[in-house]
Design a protein that fits this description.
single chain, 500 residues, globular, mainly alpha, Serine Threonine Protein Phosphatase 5, Tetratricopeptide repeat
Length: 500
């Protein structure tokens, strides 16, 4: 941690950031968003882009593989080997691993520098946004690693070997940080809110508070299987008393910094998983496929989203087996269903790929509505769980380009109609989050075991499942004493605190 924080702080102070109107200039690095003399309006957009890039890119990919959505063709058998066989040491490798820890703490540092400047300048709205986003990222780090530095983190040489705090404590402090952020946003004087530099909500105070409350609700729902109900009740009451509510219909948290159909400026999800600026399919588009399990779940419900998500092959939709170590002809590229995009959809938007300049999803309205449905079903919130559940499906249909008129027949099926169970809510939430916020699918599976996702065929044993990431080598090299105190660091057997 010492090495990471020192290097990052030096890089961040030296790097600088373009202003929002030329944010995507090819000479600028969107992951180097600050220098000491830049305005807050120049720092905020890059921090938000850094947040959504990790959520919709790195974390979405991990969740899509471990949450039951993605496998690969037989030709792509060597893609994602460490995620397919749950190779913890390879995943944490300093050079070739998956730097969730490093990327998250980098982004947290961006927001810390925004906080420091906003406090000096009395810019309450920016201060509040930074706190809300830090709360989101700290909870996400707990979801992946469990215990980690919080109070001692992000302070450079002040705490060169920052003390770890248990995941439950970090969750409590993160939720309080979000509450503090809400208070700051609410107290911001009119005329001091961000404008176009807020590439998510354009300075809309109500939407920022709804987003913050939704992130808090997600964090509370995550604790549903723990013995922490007194804390949950207290925090739910705070949300009710605050009164603004949660993200609802048509209120997705979408980040749009001004993507362009130019090399290096396309929407990253499009460019990584669909086509490059020349319109050529990427390697991921060529070899990533839906799992047989996922396709079967859509088919069992006659789900119209299947047709907007994937390409038919010989009049049917064909998936693959996650982690299949055998290059079987039945799972080749030519006989399995690829992602559908505009080029496969008569130049019309599809479920996931709408245009090269589409907004990136940080938190969809559909996820918010399913969170609310579960909270109501658990008796935490007032209202109709059925209504929230059905609205969640309808919002998913809308995002995935399904005709709204198809909802009635879909919802009338016994496998879809609300039956007053948490299982039914999670089933539909899982179908809605497919390849959008897939990390939440892995989180829900660890929390509830829903749906019954088949294990990787390349798992080290039939029952071995990934429960967390191991601490990265970079952390072991610079803060090993603290990291070692956390226990065995086994990704197969060690659970995060809320996974009971």
């Amino acid at each position: 941690m010492k090495k990471i924080m020192n290097v990052l702080l030096a890089a961040v102070v030296a790097a600088g950031l373009s202003a929002c109107n030329d944010f995507l200039d090819v000479n600028d690095n969107p992951n180097s968003p600050v220098s000491e003399n830049l305005r807050l309006s120049a720092k905020l957009p890059a921090a938000l882009v850094s947040s959504v890039n990790q959520e919709s890119g790195q974390l979405n990919q991990i969740g899509a593989l471990w949450g039951g959505y993605w496998g690969t063709t037989s030709e792509g058998i060597n893609l994602f080997p460490d995620l397919k066989n749950y190779n913890g040491p390879a995943i944490r490798h300093q050079r070739d691993g998956i730097p969730v820890w490093e990327n998250a703490y980098t982004t947290l540092l961006y927001y810390q520098l925004i906080r420091q400047q906003a406090e000096q300048e009395g810019s309450k709205f920016y201060l509040g946004i930074a706190k809300v986003m830090q709360g989101l990222h700290f909870m996400r780090l707990v979801d992946v690693y469990n215990n980690l530095p919080f109070d001692d983190a992000l302070q450079g040489t002040v705490h060169p070997t920052p003390k770890y705090e248990d995941g439950k404590t970090v969750y409590v402090k993160s939720i309080q940080l979000i509450s503090d952020g809400i208070a700051d946003i609410k107290s911001a004087a009119p005329g001091t809110e961000p404008g176009t530099d807020d590439v998510m909500f354009r300075g809309n105070k109500t939407l920022w508070i709804k987003f913050a409350n939704t992130v808090k609700l997600r964090g509370l729902i995550r604790q549903s299987q723990t013995d922490n109900q007194a804390f949950i009740n207290t925090e739910i009451q705070k949300i009710k008393s605050e009164g603004t509510g949660f993200l609802g219909t048509g209120e997705s948290a979408l980040v749009q910094p001004g993507y362009l159909n130019t090399a290096g400026k396309l929407n990253p999800f499009w460019e990584n998983y669909y086509r490059n600026v020349q319109g050529v399919s990427t390697g991921n588009h060529v070899d990533i496929r839906p799992t047989v399990f996922l396709v079967d779940q859509y088919k069992a419900r006659k789900d119209p989203r299947l047709n907007t998500l994937y390409v038919e092959v010989a009049g049917d939709f064909k998936g693959v087996l996650f982690g299949n170590p055998n290059a079987e002809a039945g799972y080749n590229r030519s006989v399995t269903s690829a992602f559908k995009g505009p080029q496969e959809n008569g130049n019309r938007p599809s479920a996931l790929f709408k245009s090269s300049t589409q907004a990136s999803v940080l938190l969809g309205s559909f996820e918010s509505l399913f969170l609310q449905a579960e909270a109501i079903q658990r008796g935490w919130l007032e209202g109709s769980a059925k209504s929230a559940y059905e609205a969640g499906i309808q919002e998913s249909f809308k995002y995935m380009e399904v005709n709204a008129a198809e909802f009635a027949a879909y919802n009338a099926q016994s496998a879809v109609a609300f039956n007053n169970t948490i299982d039914r809510i999670i089933e539909q939430k899982w179908l809605a989050l497919n390849s959008i916020s897939s990390i939440e699918a892995w989180n829900d599976y660890r929390r509830l075991g829903i749906p019954a996702i088949p294990n990787s065929l390349d798992a080290p044993s039939p029952t071995a499942r990934p429960l967390r990431f191991m601490y990265p080598e970079s952390e072991r090299q610079t803060n090993n004493t603290e990291a070692t105190k956390q226990g065995s660091d086994d990704m197969i057997t060690d659970k995060v605190w809320w996974d009971n």
